[in-house]
Amino acid sequence: xxxxxxxxxxxxxxxxxxxxxxxxxxxxxxxxxxxxxxxxxxxxxxxxxxxxxxxxxxxxxxxxxxxxxxxxxxxxxxxxxxxxxxxxxxxxxxxxxxxxxxxxxxxxxxxxxxxxxxxxxxxxxxxxxxxxxxxxxxxxxxxxxxxxxxxxxxxxxxxxxxxxxxxxxxxxxxxxxxxxxxxxxxxxxxxxxxxxxxxxxxxxxxxxxxxxxxxxxxxxxxxxxxxxxxxxx
Length: 233
Ligand code: DX5
Ligand code: ZN
Description:
alpha/beta
């Protein structure tokens, strides 16, 4: 079924002043997915970040559109689908139909970024573009008018629980500087915790993905509260 309206609007608004927290499902207990999602929803998460890996673009395999379709009815959270797959164009429509609110594709994964970002928006959902730590922002310069979100990778994608790579801070600053009225959100993904979230916010980050810092904590409410306090400090 083809979507005609842009989704996910209202859920972008509430915490934009202070930043949005997006727990990454990658660090959840997959044997209790529904419970895990409810726990972060009740703990005050703004979005749910879904890491999609194909064992080719990154050295790991995770979930596909089937899982997005299964979790869509059980949560109101904005489903932020991060496609770490080669040839993402083959999967965009399937994720949109499964209920994704944002689909983010990697600049390194396709030769036709412009075409595929337009396709995501044509499907009525938000389009994101991502760059790996070793990729210069210059490769996405020409598509900044076509995106609702820029995802700056602060680890080499593939696994949760890795250490934050500080070069991401300069990229965020640069993206905030060149935004000049464009509506894109700046998202950071990888190694985000209460120690670096304040600096990331000051640099201009709008959306903070956190896997192990939230799902790895016994009390998710406390973990999210701590992240919010640190980002406002
Ligand atoms: C890495 C993923 C991240 C990761 C974040 O490839 O894109 O979303 O799960 O997990 P932490 O916060 O543990 O680095
Ligand atoms: Zn991710």
